[in-house]
Each structure stands twice: as C-alpha cells, then as structure tokens.
C-alpha cells in the first residue's frame, strides 16, 4: 500500500485527535476570553483515568463514556472554586492560576501512578487490522477516525442547534447581553468550561491506546492544542477541525520523510501560517 | 542616599548573606543565576506587561552558545559569555517581533508555541546541541593572563564570587534601565497600550527592545548556568524551565527588581530543601502559585512589605486592581 | 502642498468597513486652521469612527486624508502625533496607575518619542518636559493633584486630564471626543472654558452631545447620520435645518448661549 496514502490516513486519525484537543480550548477561549493552561491536564487525566479503569478490569467502552464525564465534573468544581473569582481580573491571572492547577494535577498523577508511564491496551474488538483488498489498516485507528467524526458532528449540532450552544456562541460575543436575556451567564460559563475539559479528556482516553500514558503528556498536548488553535483560528469550530487535520497530516507525512523533525515541523508550520495570516486560517479578529 | 539605592543594597546584602548561610557554593551560585533569569522575565512582565512563556528559549540558548564555544573553539570564556548575551538579545528580538503581533492571551500562547518549537529544534539538531544528552564537559578555567591567575574560578565559592560580581553589575544596570525614560515608557505601555500609541510611541519598538534586553540577561544566566554545572542540558530549553522562571517571577513579585531576587532565592532554596524531603514538592509550588495569583498579587515582596508596614506602623499603598502589581516606586 | 493656508485637514471619501458592516460610507471633511469644527449626530452616526480615521487610531478602508499638506492616510496614530495631531478619547484612557504629572510628561515627550528610547537617561531635564507639563497642569487646574495617580481623580478631573493629554503634545489639531461625557454641572463650565481657550493656539475638532457648548463655541458644524454627512454649516444654519431636526427627533439642538 502506498506509504504516503497510509501516512495521510494516519494523519487524519491524529488530526481528529488534535481537533478534539483544540476544540475545547477554542470554546473556552471564545466564551470566557481566557486561555486555559490546564487544558493539557484534563487530557492527562482523561488518559490516566482510562488507564486506571482498565487496570480495574472495566471495559474500554465504559471508560470512554465515564472518564470524560468525571473529568468534566472535576473541571466544573475547579471553575466554581478557583476560576470564577478571577474572571474580571487581567488575563495574566487566569493563565497563572491554570498553570498552577496544571502543575498540581501533574504532580498528583505522578504521586498516584508513578513517574514512568505505561502502555494501554487496545480493546479486544478493535485489536488487529482491517483488510480490504490492498488496504490494510489498524482497526483501532479507523475507529478513532469514525468515532471522532461522529462526536464532532454531535458537538457541532450542540453548538449550532441548541439553546445552550446559542448561549455559548452569543456569550462569546457579549456576556452582558446574554445575561440581560435572562440566561444565567455563570452557569453557561461553567458548562462550557466543563464541556471543553470533557472534550480534552475524551481525546486523552482515545489517545491512550495509541501512545500510552505518561505524566508529561499534558504539556505536549497543551502545546499542540495551542498550535492547532493558532493555525485554525481562535474561537472557530471549523478552524479547530482544519487546524487539527493540517497538523496531523503534516506530522504524519514528516514522520516518513524526516522522523526526527516531525514534531518540529508542526511548530514551523504554525510560524508559516502566522506570518501569512495572523488570525489563523479561519479565525475572526 | 541609602533609600535611593535600597534595591541594589538589598541585592548586595543577599550576595553577602548567601555564603554565610549556605554551605554549598553551587547552590548559592544557582540562586544568583536564576535571579538573573527572573530579572529578565520581570522586565517583560512587571514593566512591559508581557507574560512570556519563552524565557527558557533564551536561557537554553545561552547555555548552548557558551557550551559550543568552549568545547569546540579555543576562544576564552569572556568572549563566549559575550557571544551568549548577544545571541540571546538577537533571538529574543526575533521571537519578540513574531509574538508581539498579537496581544493578550494570544501573545502568551505564541510564546509557548515558540518555546516548544525551539525545544524540538534543539532536540533535533544533535550536532549542535547534543540532542537528548546535551553538551557535556564544558570547561571552567580560571581567567589567566600571561600565566598569572587573574580571576580564580576553580572552586564553587570562587566561581560564586565571580557570579556575584557579574550579578551586581547587571542588577545595577537593570535598575538604571527600569528607572530610565525607557523604563517609564514601558510602564505606560503596560498600563494602557492604546494610549501610549495615541500619544506618539511606537509600541512595537519599545516591546522589542524590552525583549532584547530580557533575552540578553536570560542568556547570560544560561551561560553562567552552563559554566556552573559543566553541562548544557536539553532541559534548559524545555517548557518546564520557562514555566519555573515565570513562577519565580510571580511568586517573588513584579513590582520591583529586587522582588525577582526574592523569587529566585525562594524557589532555588525551597527546591533544594524540599526535594530531599518530598520528591513531589512541585505540588506545593503549584498550590502556592494559585494562592499568589488569587490572594497575594504582589508576591513575597508584597507580603514582606505589608509586614514591614504593620511593624513600623506606616500605611502601605494599596494594590492596583487587577494588575500584577504597580511600579510602587515611581518617583 | 497647496492651499495649506485655508485647509488644515482635508478628508475625502472616507470609507470604513468592519467585516460586512460599513461604518462610514464616504465622508468628506474639510477643517480650516484655527477654527473649532464640531461633529455632531445621533448615536451610531460614525462620529467616533471618523475620529479614529482622522487620528490614525484605526486604518481606513478607503479614502484619503491630507493633513497640513501631507498625505497621512496610511500613517498610524503614533506617526500622526509628530505631524501635529493629538486626541482625547470618549472613554477615559489614562495611565491609571501613573501620576498626573507622569501622564502629561509621557504625552509631552510623545512628540519626540525617540528620546524615550534611551535606556540610560532618566526622565529628567529635557525628558521631563517640565515647562509644558506645568503649563498644561495650570490650564487644567490640576496642579494640586500633580502627584496623584490618574485613577484616583474624580471623573470630571479625569475628563480634563484626557484633554490635557492631547494638549501636552502641543498639536496643530486637537481632536476631542465627547470631552464632557458623564460630567456634572460644576465640571461642565470648567470644561467649556478649557475648550474655549484652546482655539487661540489650536485647531479644534470636537465631537459633542452637549448642544450648549457646540452652538456656543463652533465655527463650523458637520452633522452626521448613519455613516454619512447629512449637512454642514455655521451653527445658526444648522440650528434651523429641518433635516438635522429630523435626525435628532427634534429636541436636542435648540441650545443657545450658556
């Protein structure tokens, strides 16, 4: 099978994961106007909770549903306890508080699970490859693409088609207007924050069988989420999708052409996009 | 007269106290080395209002430059240090010119992304940086002239003396910069960038110069760090370094330059002490960072100042709302 | 560099688009030197947007602006300060944490910003701009508060300082965006005197809702509505114009002397 085609498909898979990572960040920024530097920590928790669930003998499918919800709940609490105090303060504070939070989470993960990391088994039904004439491809990765595509569609529907979604989108334009309309703005904020965190955690759960778990995966995830959002455009759902796919495919192709430079190329691509289009490919100002 | 130079005198006091209270020359040097890095970060954060997650870039760059020059060329150490400083200034200006196209959180994200880029670059360019292993066996020889030893640098405490002198000189220079008309303009930019532009200042230029100075000082810190440890590891350019420099800056306080020394001293000494007690002491640091961001905006300096006012019975100036500390000493 | 003597500011066909929304549909404006030229109109008329275009705070989408014989259309605001354009803002935009004196010093030095790049020299001597600052402080009647933080001033004092920030640049043209906004009766008189006093040394372009002041002070009034110029003329003509009455729904512009 053509190796470049293979890498493009791999890239789509990774790209969908990156999209999941980035879309939560984009939503949170779009609504709350701050960048959550603990976003990688939610991804980390999602992956480790999944790992732990599997250690306890629970099914992957259960973990897939429960772990993101648990992380979303934790994020909700964090928002209520910590973040709601500082919304009206300057952006430096938001960033620093979430950096502190990320550090605490990372250390807790190391305390509980140790510093070394581990592999996570692919669920049995998805183990192995699919063979379709000339086309051979790991089942799990196909599942990844399919599942995230469906989830993306659901998320899109949630944001575009429901009242909550409209409130989130309106809130990103003007939170005062939203509250004047009688919607509890703070509840919307909390929900959006939890949703963003849950999406990151979902990405973590899905990523775990592919790359295992280790305590510093949160930092790398944060960097990638930033790059995707910067490339795709802040606050844009479609931007997160486009950005994620671009980055995923670039990284995959690079891993064939120049493996050591694959991750570097992500950031170089970001620099290139920014030089040409400062607000990202699909971003508004 | 004492009041005018109080910050420098406090810094000098610190350089004298460290040898008396610590038994390790390397640890004392580490305090001053990171103090330099924090000063560089504070110039951006406390004075220009720029939260940079990229300070590790310049720190690592300083280490690598010095390491490469001392292991691959026969150039003397002072030249290597100067080269590190210059390269730090140039790269900082380049990174800055890229990042300041955006404002606010977007700017912060860009600095982080740039930091990651440089990290992966360093990871990949193994011929230059040694990749994962870093540069090893960086020599530290005493400065000699015609066979006679000018400045001994063999023992940790000898090296500490050298670093202390360099530190005090740089600290004095930075104080001068902070109090200069340039420094005052930075404060204005931090306070209200739109207004600064509206009254005639080309804000980008000022930010770039601030970046260059910050990069120069941070690279100097990195170079001294490499001399101190004999290695230029990949970790110097990693996210964690950028993060920790920022943490030190915020915990110390952003209101004045001496607070940066406090922040560095606190972190380095706490790390040294706590890491033997509990390897996961960073958890406490994270909690402290949250606490400082929520409740103690003026950092350790602010806490100290409040205590001092309470003891001496004077009233303190209040906290500026929402901003990370005021330049409480504008004359 | 023609007819620099009877037109200081010449703006032709100014268009401004924000995405799909057009804020200015092609505005022409001619301001004669040493006059007070007011721009009035209902909310949303584009007055502040026009100011942004003229002062360079925001770039134009189309049109040309000639100031004192120079085409400044593409120059940003910090460059136009050196040409002799200075402005105040509708929403107070001072350096809240800095003293009044420092605010004014920065504004005064902003005309020669390269001096501010010195990392070595302090803000003393020529960089303290003491004579300009003291002069402006006197005009603003804020000398007593010179060392107070700008954020600690009363609203009226802050609005005066806003004007002062423009004054300190010793500009040829001074743009005041609703200088009296939010002011109480007592402060209003002071502000009116202040603005009146400006016309001796400067060309004043003024956005105001307070019709007393507008009718009393202005040499020329431009009325805007929905991104276009509705009518332009002397105060009496504007007062009597039916279109203007209709635009304002009748009741705001009959102010007389105060």
Question: Brief overview, please?
Answer:
The complex is a heterotrimer of chains A (285), B (331) and C (258). With 285 residues, chain A is mainly α. Chain A has a single domain, classed as ABC transporter involved in vitamin B12 uptake, BtuC, CATH 1.10.3470.
Report the count of strand segments of chain A: 2
Helix-strand topology string of chain B: HHHHHHEEHHHHHHHH
% residues in beta strands of chain A? under 5%
Q: Supply the helix-strand structural class of chain A.
A: mainly alpha
Please report the two chains with the greatest interface, counting residues with C-beta closer than 8 angstroms to the partner's C-beta: A-B, 47 and 42 residues
Write down the CATH class of chain A. Answer: Mainly Alpha
The largest pleated sheet of chain B is described as:
2 strands, antiparallel
DSSP strand count of chain B: 2
Output the number of helix runs of chain A.
11
Q: What general form of chain A does the structure show? A: globular
Count of alpha/pi helices of chain B: 14
What this model shows, in words?
The complex is a heterotrimer of chains A (285), B (331) and C (258). Chain A is mostly helical and 285 residues long. Chain A has a single domain, classed as ABC transporter involved in vitamin B12 uptake, BtuC, CATH 1.10.3470. Chain A has 11 helices and 2 strands, in the order ααααββααααααα. In chain A, strands 1-2 form a two-stranded antiparallel ribbon. The radius of gyration of chain A is 19 Å and the shape is globular. The relative contact order of chain A is 0.21. The longest helix of chain B is centred in the middle third of the chain and has 27 residues. Chain B is built from 14 helices and 2 strands, in the order ααααααββαααααααα. Chain B has one domain. Chain B has 331 residues and is an all-alpha fold. With 258 residues, chain C is an alpha/beta fold. In chain C, 33% of the residues lie in helices and 23% in strands. Chain C has a 6-stranded mixed beta sheet, sandwiched between helices. A 4-stranded antiparallel beta sheet of chain C has the order 2-1-4-5, covered by helices on one side. Chain C is globular. The chains are: A mainly alpha (285), B mainly alpha (331), C alpha/beta (258). Chains in contact: A-B, B-C. At the A-B interface, α4, α9 and α11 of A face α5, α11 and α13 of B.
